């Protein structure tokens, strides 16, 4: 059943203390990816949640969001828009600065990748403070596209990212797995 499937995914994520710096408990998805059952079920469960929405594009975050974003876009049959770290996209871009749980960065999308009226599902592997998600939302909003929802594999609940996204942007998020 659903709860058992979620528990299996949860157990497949490794927890690493003090990475990339002291005090951070890093939730490592590489162990989930290495497990064929966990990888397949992650995509299948997300597909179940979003299959009836009219999604034109998944916009996924560099780098770990790409992995899940591409598999889900293939399964849904929609396009994939790469939201990349600064300086990687070759054409004209829209950019947005943001704060991380452990640092600062800039995200970009290609100008013209998303158009007014496009239905977009945003996706990333993990929601911590919501800084990355907020920057992604601002980028997609600048393009005029419509945000269907924001999906995550993992949510770090105590960091308040989901509440931040809801209170700041009025957008509902969905996470398969939640850790405190
Ligand atoms: C991680 C993670 C999310 C973000 C979450 O990415 O994949 O994108 O942090 O943190 P936040 O909610 O506090 O913004 P990171 O920037 O470490 O990049 P990576 O995927 O390239 O490893
Ligand atoms: N990104 C931001 N915080 C993280 C954490 N604690 N584990 C894995 N990825 C992260």
Bound molecules: 1-O-pyrophosphono-5-O-phosphono-alpha-D-ribofuranose, adenine
Distance between the termini: 23 Å
CATH topology: Rossmann fold
Question: Can you tell me the overall shape?
Answer: globular
**Structural class by secondary-structure content:** alpha/beta
CATH domain class: Alpha Beta
Spatial strand order of the main sheet: 5-6-4-3-7-8-9
Count of all domains:
1
Q: How much is the average pLDDT?
A: 97
Number of helices: 6
Residue windows where pLDDT falls under 50 for at least 5 positions = none
Helix content: 25-40%
Main sheet overview: 7 strands, mixed
Q: From N to C, what is the helix and strand string?
A: HEEHHEHEEEEHEHE
Q: Judging by the overall fold, what is the CATH architecture?
A: 3-Layer(aba) Sandwich
The overall strand count is 9
Estimated radius of gyration:
16 Å
Strand content: 35-45%
Could you describe the 3D structure shown?
- With 180 residues, the protein is an alpha/beta fold.
- It has one domain (53-179): 3-Layer(aba) Sandwich (Rossmann fold).
- 37% of the residues lie in helices and 35% in strands.
- It has helices at residues 2-12, 30-34, 36-50, 64-76, 131-143, 161-169; strands at residues 14-17, 25-28, 57-61, 79-85, 93-100, 103-110, 119-127, 146-156, 173-179.
- The strands form two sheets. Strands 5-6-4-3-7-8-9 form a seven-stranded mixed β-sheet, sandwiched between helices.
- Helix 1 crosses helix 3 and helix 3 crosses helix 4.
- The model has no long low-confidence stretch (mean pLDDT 97).
- Adenine binds at residues 24-27, 101, 126, 128, 156.
């Amino acid at each position: 059943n659903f709860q058992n499937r979620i528990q299996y995914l949860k157990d497949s994520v490794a927890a690493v203390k003090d990475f990339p710096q002291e005090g951070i408990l890093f939730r490592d998805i590489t162990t989930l990816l290495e497990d064929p059952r966990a990888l397949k079920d992650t995509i299948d469960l997300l597909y179940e949640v979003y299959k009836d929405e009219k999604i034109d594009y998944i916009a996924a975050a560099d780098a770990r969001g790409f992995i899940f974003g591409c598999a889900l876009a293939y399964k849904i049959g929609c396009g994939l828009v790469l939201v990349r770290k600064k300086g990687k996209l070759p054409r004209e871009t829209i950019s947005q600065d943001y704060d991380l749980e452990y640092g600062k960065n800039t995200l970009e999308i290609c100008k013209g990748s998303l158009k007014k009226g496009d239905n977009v599902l945003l996706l990333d592997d993990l929601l911590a403070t919501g800084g990355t998600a907020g920057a992604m939302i601002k980028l997609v909003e600048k393009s005029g596209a419509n945000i269907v929802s924001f999906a995550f594999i993992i949510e770090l609940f105590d960091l308040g990212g989901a509440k931040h996204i809801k209170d700041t942007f009025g957008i509902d998020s969905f996470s398969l797995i939640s850790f405190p």
